[in-house]
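Translate structure to sequence.
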């Protein structure tokens, strides 16, 4: 039923070629997020899609949440640390070597199985 030339013929700002032909967009809803810097970000998502808890602020990049009074992401006082740095805080090198050996063993065992 849809005219195949609609897209080709459309220009920015041009009126729909056939106003009488009702085009129903997927139902969607507006969801607003607030970041710590007081920005609000409104996004539109499909009505049936689950609402994400967090959305990156489009202005400053901080995570933004649904509660304007309690935006997520404490102001970061700690410098960025790599995952490895965190792991090294908790594990000694010897423990790390043992864990690595264990993981490699498990990997080899899994690869040895016919279904993998
Ligand atoms: Zn922001």
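Result:
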């Amino acid at each position: 039923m849809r005219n195949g030339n609609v897209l080709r013929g459309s220009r920015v700002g041009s009126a729909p070629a056939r106003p009488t032909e009702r085009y129903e967009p997927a139902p969607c809803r507006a969801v607003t997020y607030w970041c710590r810097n007081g920005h609000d970000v409104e996004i539109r998502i499909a009505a049936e899609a689950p609402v994400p808890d967090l959305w990156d602020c489009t202005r400053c990049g901080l995570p933004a949440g649904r509660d304007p009074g309690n935006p997520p992401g404490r102001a970061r006082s700690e410098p960025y640390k790599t995952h490895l740095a965190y792991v090294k805080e908790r594990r000694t090198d010897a423990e790390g070597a043992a864990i690595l050996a264990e993981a490699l063993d498990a990997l080899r065992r899994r690869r040895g199985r016919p279904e993998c």
